[in-house]
Amino acid sequence: MKRLLELELMEDESQVKAYAEADFETPHNEFIQRLKSFIDDSGLSGTALDLGCGPGDISCRFAKTFPFCKVHAVDGSKPMLNYAKSTLPSDLTERISFIPGLLPDVILPQSSYDIIFSNSLLHHLPDPQMLWQTIKKYSRPGTRIIIMDLLRPESIEDAQIMVNNYAANEPEILQRDFYHSLLAAFSMKEIVGQLAEADLNLHIEQISDRHVFISGVIPDSLRNKMDINEAVETINLESPELYINRDLSLLEFNKRVLAQAKNEA
Known about the structure:
By secondary structure, the chain is an alpha/beta fold. It folds into two domains: 13-222, Rossmann fold (3-Layer(aba) Sandwich); 226-264, no CATH class. Helix content is 38%, strand content 16%. It has helices at 13-20, 25-39, 57-65, 78-86, 129-137, 156-166, 172-184, 188-198, 250-264; strands at 45-51, 68-75, 96-100, 115-119, 144-150, 203-206, 211-217. It has a seven-stranded mixed β-sheet, with helices on both faces. Helix 4 links the parallel strand 2 (68-75) and strand 3. Helix 2 runs parallel beside helix 3 (57-65), helix 5 runs parallel beside helix 8 (188-198) and helix 6 (156-166) crosses helix 7. The radius of gyration is 20 Å and the shape is globular.
């Protein structure tokens, strides 16, 4: 079965409410437990990036699991973010920031993150590289990557069976959304191809009849592979701040400074 794109973001308030109040306890708990096992450090500190945060449940679970971390949570749906803000527990308001924006153009407060995670965003995107290239843009050597998403069934009949099995007690609007999400999801083979295209060496595993889990750590080499558009021919050593940005990593900057200084000596 070919992939069938979903039409739009969740902008309808009734749709947002139905999604936010649905019973995602099992998959969301599975995501956090796998993330926790992968990170294996309850005392972890730093800032995490949640791409496609929706109503904020995963962001909150992460913040509670890792009390020394902050979260920048991104979503393209303003109604979804409004719901997330309105239901955010008071004890997490200082550690979770909700940011409106669409991938890959969203502007974030940091140039890189310690952890980047995403649950159920990939299947919403018309081009999967929107996710993978955003991850590369906002990562650095050592950044932990954790992604979970739906897998596309082999047929529309199988998709309907999954809706009946896992969403039979949910509102009709949610059943419809789940059905279309299954049709818009990618296959394991397609995701493997996406990661190869993005030059991301991540582990991919099917963990249920409808879920894939992707994880890994950004190696030292990845952020040093500079695109030709990022080239800086001459670095003004009197004004280094002009060159340190999200496109030119500090490590690469230092390498160029040393090389230039050697040539000028």
